Amino acid sequence: MSSLTHTEVNSEGLHTLQDELRALSGTLNDLYDTLWGDLNILGEEWTDEKWDEFSEAFKDDREKIIELADKYKDWADNYIQRKIEQVEDFGNTNAGIK
After folding, report:
1. Where are the alpha helices (DSSP H) in the chain?
2. Three-state SS for 93?
3. How many C-beta neighbours within 10 Å does residue 83 have?
């Protein structure tokens, strides 16, 4: 069994991943906005004290959606971008990157 000593990648594949991560981040933000709007409408219709309990119990999970969206965007804009720049600096000549 042989071991990999380097990785071959081209910037096109990294750009595709970067675009998909940014799109996923945007989709999660859109879903959060929709969820938040629906919850606000529900809160206007739900008039007893159980609304506050329900809303508070769901708050942490709502915030995780935003955290995940931010992490995907950050990863695309920073980590993946640095890798793209490394590959492009090597001239896309199938050079390995670390």
Report:
1. 11-45, 50-74, 81-89
2. coil
3. 17
